[in-house]
Write a structure and sequence with these properties.
The chain is of the alpha/beta class and 317 residues long. The chain has two domains: 67 residues, no CATH class; 222 residues, Alpha/Beta hydrolase fold, catalytic domain (Rossmann fold, 3-Layer(aba) Sandwich). The chain contains twelve helices and eight strands. An eight-stranded mixed sheet has the order 1-2-4-3-5-6-7-8, with helices on both faces. Helix 1 crosses helix 8 and helix 5 crosses helix 6. The radius of gyration is 23 Å and the shape is elongated. The chain starts with a helix and ends with a helix.
Length: 317
């Protein structure tokens, strides 16, 4: 009888260990699929509704061909990827780096160039990795922060720039904020337009709706945890580590926060989360009845004056 119980106990332990191994193996497989999908344009387009214009370079090609002081620049990144940008030299020792949104390219930033040219800045429009003419894959800020450092180093060493600002829109705004709190070489000022406060919450809520799980379901909770384990394995970071809301808590440079109050892709609540968590010199402006990242198109004069006032108040112009 004792032998039977002993063998039965060993059998149960083995069964339990096997179940745990099987559960974790399946969790890691499915979690890795979710992680891979987060960098897949098809999934992001389904979730966000953003049309992929990342390879439409017609506008920036025309600008480089027609504007005498515009020069295409390519630099090798730390992981040997090619980063591409367009430098517009306005004979200044101040430059602003313009960063576009998800599935766009540096063409999206053209509309912001006059804003800074009128204020006496050179302008550097960059393609994020996996967008436009830049190589690599999207890592939600993990390697993009290093790419921004690369551009800042280029401006300081090759263009002798003394003041460098970063102006990002949507995903570009999030990366600007991440840079403000994560990079040891922060810029002199930041302007973020329509950034999310926490990508984890944004995607998590959208995925809940996309797979039509009940709000109290724990299935996605488990799968999300495994996906972040896989993300850490691949990149050394999780989406919790790449939170603009957390990054701005460490920022010391002045930040201007911009948002439209009719933004449904990234609701205005994100603006307040970011602003309230920032302890550096800061300003906030909301564009009435403006949808996602359309402030400058809807209110060009108001947009330009807001940027001007911010820079003047911080003695940057």
């Amino acid at each position: 009888m004792k032998i039977f119980l002993s063998r039965f106990f060993i059998f149960l332990i083995g069964l339990l260990i096997g179940a745990i191994i099987t559960f974790n193996t399946l969790g890691l497989i499915l979690g890795n699929i979710i992680y891979q999908e987060l960098s897949d344009p098809k999934l992001n387009i389904n979730i966000t509704g953003i049309v992929n214009h990342s390879q439409d370079l017609s506008q920036i090609n025309e600008l480089e061909q027609t504007l005498p002081n515009a020069q295409k620049i390519t630099l090798p990144s730390a992981d040997n990827r090619t980063m591409t940008g367009t430098f517009i030299n306005n004979n200044s020792d101040k430059t602003v780096i313009l960063i576009h949104g998800l599935y766009q390219n540096r063409s999206m930033s053209i509309i912001y160039t006059d804003t800074y040219a009128q204020l006496g800045f050179n302008v550097l429009l960059i393609d994020l990795r996996s967008h436009g003419e830049s190589d690599g894959i999207i890592t939600w800020g993990q390697t993009e922060i290093k790419d921004i450092d690369l551009w800042c180093d280029y401006l300081r060493s090759s263009q002798n720039q003394h003041i460098i600002g970063i102006h990002g829109v949507s995903l570009g705004g999030a990366f600007a904020l991440l840079h403000s709190g994560i990079s040891a070489r922060s810029a002199d000022f930041y302007v973020e337009d329509s950034s999310y406060s926490d990508l984890k919450s944004l995607y998590y809520n959208h995925l809940h709706n996309m797979v039509q799980l009940p709000t109290n379901s724990k299935i996605l909770d488990v799968l999300w945890a495994y996906s972040q384990i896989c993300m850490y394995w691949h990149t050394g970071a999780t989406l919790d580590d790449l939170s603009p809301q957390k990054a701005v808590q460490k920022d010391t440079a002045p930040i201007l926060f911009l948002h439209g109050d009719a933004d449904t892709l990234i609701p205005p609540a994100a603006l307040y989360d970011l602003y309230n968590n920032c302890h550096a010199p800061k300003q906030m402006h909301i564009f009435k009845n403006s949808i996602h990242a359309q402030g400058i198109a809807d209110y060009p004069e108001e947009y330009n004056q807001t940027v001007r006032d911010f820079l003047q108040e911080n003695n940057l112009i």
